[in-house]
Amino acid sequence: MKMDKEKMNEEEAEKRLNDSLKQDKKQPKAEEMPEKLKKEMEQTKIKLESFKKEIVKKFPFIEAVGLIPPQAAGLFEEEEEIEKQEKEKLMHLVIILPESKEKELGKVKTEAIKAVQKIKPKIWLHVHTPTGLWEMSYDAKYDMVEAISMAYPLHDKGVLGALRVVAIHKNLVVRKFEKYIVSYVLAGSLSRGEATKTSDVDTFVIVDDTDVKRMSRAELRDKLRGIIWGYGAQAGEMAGVKNKLNCQIYILTEFWDAVREAHPVMFTFIRDGIPLYDKGTFMPWKLLLRMGKITGTPEAIDRFMALGERVKENVAKRLNDIATEELYWSIITPSQGILMLYGLAPPTPKETIQLMRDVLYEKEKLIEKKYIDILEKIVGIYKGFEHGKVKEVTGKQIDEMTKDTEDYIKRLKELVKQISEKTSEKTLQILYDDAIKMLEATLGKTSYEDIERKFEKELVEKGKMPASSLRALQELVKAKGKKFKMGRQEAERVRKDAQVLISELTEYNQRKELLRKIAEEEKSKGKK
Questions:
Q1: pTM confidence score
Q2: What domains does the chain contain, in order, with CATH numbers?
Q3: Coil, strand or helix: which one is 28?
C-alpha cells in the first residue's frame, strides 16, 4: 500500500509538472476548431512575429521576448491591478534587457507599446532586466519568476532557455524532496544576466538535516545528490536546451559551519545567489550579510590573515617551482627527443647536455653555441636548487629564462627539420647501396650506367620482376645523382619504393635459389 501511495504521489507530481510546462490553454483539435478561430490564431501568430522582428531590429541588444503562459497571466494581472473586464482580452509579453542597458528600459517600453497597439487581442508588456526579475525572487514571488521562465520564446539569446531548465529542475527537486529542501538558489552567469544558449547554469540546493533520524547526514546528502543530479539531465531534455545544469548540494549544518568559518565560496554564494525557492532561510542570511552581521570566527579570520602574510613566501616558492620544474623539464625533454631523432639511445637528463655539445654542436655543427649555453644555464639553476646552492630567483630572472627557453625550443624545431633531412639522406644511401649489391649478386658485376638497362632486359622484359620495380630503381639512381638532397615527401616516396624493390629482389633470389636446389636434387636422383 505504501509503495502504491508513493507511486501515485510521483505520478501526480509528474502530471502537475507537465501541466505547468504547458505554454497555452488546451485548444480543440484542429479539425474541430471553427474556421474563424483558426484564422484569428494564425493572424495573432503572424502579428506577434512581426512585433518581435520590429522591436528586436530597433533594439538588437534585447536578450529575450517571450509569451507568458495564459494560465499564469493572473499572477501579473493581480500585480498590475488590471480591471476585471480587461483581463480576458489580454496576452502578456515579457521583454528582458541586459543589465548594461537598464537606462534604456523606459525607451524600449515606449517603443514596444507603440508596436503592440496594432495587435489584437491586446498585449500587456513586462520589461525587465535580470535584476528586475531577481527583485521578484527577493520578495518571494517565485511563481512570477517561474511563469517568465516558462514563457514561449519569440526571441531568446539564451536567458529564457536557461531559466526554463532551472525552473523545471527546481520543480522536480522540490516536489520529490519538499520535506528536506530548505532553499533552491540560482548562481553563476545566469544570476549575473550573462547566460548564453550554451553556458552552464549553476544552482545550489540546501538540504535540511536537522531532523534526520534514520540515516546519517552523509547518507542523506549522498542519496539526494544522486537523484538531484539525475534530474539535471532530465530537466535539460524537457527544456529542450543545450545548457548544462550544475547543481551543488549542501547539508544545512555543514553549510552553516562553512559560513561561520568564513569560507569565501559561501560568502559569495549568499551575496550573489538568487532564491527560486526558500523556506525563510536564505533571505535572512542575505540581509544579515549585507548588514555585516555574518562574519567569520576570530580563528578563521586569523587563518586568512596568515595566508596574506605569507604571500611573499608563497610567491617566492612558486617562482622557484617554475624555475626548477616547469622550465627545466620544458628544455630537457625536447633535447632528449632531438638526440633520439639523431639516432642515439634515450639519454638521461645528466647525459643530455654533454651529448648536445659533443654531437650536435662540435661534431655535426648543427646547432650554435648560444643554445648550448641556454641549456647549461637553466639546468645549472635547477641543479643549484637541488643542492641548496640557489635559494631564490627573481621575477626578472624568470622572464629572462622563459624567453631563453622559447628561443631554444624555436631553434630545436628548425633542428628537427635539419636532422630529418640528414637522416633521410643516410637512409637513402644505405638503401641504394643494398639495392646495388643485390643487383650485382643477381645480374653479375656491371657498371652503374648499364645496370638499369640490364635489369630491364634480363628481369623485367622476361616477366621475372614487375615493371614498377624498374621505376623504383630509376628513381633511386636519380636520387643518388642529387646526393639524396630532396624534399621530405619526395624522399619518403623514394624510400618506400626502394624498400619494395629490395624486398622483390630478395624474393626473386630466394625463388632462384630454391629452383637451383630442386634441380640439383633431381639431377642427383637421376644419377642414382
A1: 0.53
A2: 1-157 (no CATH), 176-296 (3.30.460), 311-393 (no CATH), 423-527 (no CATH)
A3: coil
